[in-house]
Every structure is written in C-alpha cells, then in structure tokens.
Amino acid sequence: MDDHEVRRFRTQMKILQRRLRRELRPLYGVSRTASQVLAAVVRLRGAPGPRRIADELQMTSSNVAAALRELEAVGYVERRKDSDDARRVSVFLTDRGESVVAHVRGERDTWLGRAMETLLDEDEQRVLLAAGALMERLADFERAPGTGRAAEDGAVVAEDAP
C-alpha cells in the first residue's frame, strides 16, 4: 500500500466523519465543546474525572471545567466528590443526560442506516461492516516508542530485538 492510497483512505474517513457530525443536531442550550465533553463522558464509561476527560479530548482543564458547568446547568451530568479523597471529582451522566445521548445517537444512526440501505447492496453492506471491524483494529494499534514496530500489550519492542 503506498502513501497516496493511505492519504486517500484517510480523506474518505474524514469525509464520512464530517457528514456524521453534520447529522448531529446541536444540543439545545449547550456549546459544541460541552457536547464533545458529554460524548467523552459516555465513551469513557463509569465515572471519569475531569482530567481524564481533558486527556481524552486533548482539551485544557479549564475548557473541560467550563463545559461541565454548562452540562450541569442543563442537568446532563453531575459532579461528585470522592468520599475517600475530597480533592478527586467524578463525572456522572444523569438520567436526563442518558436520554439526550440516546436521542442523538438514534438520529445519527437512523441517517447512517438509511444511507447504507439506500446506497449499498447487501454484499456492500457486509463489506462495510467488516471494514468497520478492521478500523477498530487499526484504532487499537500502538507503536512502540522509537520503533516502527507495534507494541504488543503495551510492551516496548527494542529496535535490535530478533
């Protein structure tokens, strides 16, 4: 596979990602940043802390804090202090937040499902679903520091290893 093919594939994925974002209706009463933070809270599962959310989104802590205030104000998330360490805060999705997330996902998935059924035959749909599984594998790829080889289970692969 040459660099041109890789660039073309990356561009194709970006085009679909942009379209999926366009299909997402803005959440009433919150900024795009707050919407991204809400999505990260869902994606990270459990009760992530603000630092973990900031790391996931590559945002500053202050931007995440402002977005969390917005989300709390509309009742989508709740921040709670850790009972063992009051300095630690966890973010929880509220029932209202779960409802909003389910609605947004439904709208986006409905568009994608309609597009797949309309534009692709059954074989193409199977190929696309298989490609999705391959993209998940690619997303999990980790490169060992300083090498061109993949690290297995997070282990560092020495450059002179056999």
| Spatial order of strands in the largest sheet | 1-2
List segments where confidence is low: pLDDT < 50 over at least 5 consecutive residues: 153-162
Number of strands: 2
Number of helices: 6
Largest sheet: 2 strands, antiparallel
Mean pLDDT: 85
CATH superfamily label: Winged helix-like DNA-binding domain superfamily/Winged helix DNA-binding domain
Report the top-level CATH class. Answer: Mainly Alpha
Percent range of helical residues: 55-70%
**Helix/strand order, N-terminal first:** HHHHEEHH
| Molecular shape | globular
Describe the structure.
With 162 residues, the protein is mainly alpha-helical. It has one domain: Arc Repressor Mutant, subunit A. It has six helices and two strands, in the order ααααββαα. It has a two-stranded antiparallel sheet. The model is unreliable at 153-162 (pLDDT under 50).
Describe this structure in a few short sentences:
By secondary structure, this protein is mainly alpha-helical. It has 6 helices and 2 strands; from the N terminus they run ααααββαα.
Furnish the topology, listing elements before pairings:
Elements: H1 3-23, H2 32-44, H3 50-57, H4 61-73, E1 77-81, E2 89-93, H5 95-119, H6 122-139
Antiparallel strand pairs: 1-2
Helix pairs in contact: 2-3, 2-4, 3-4
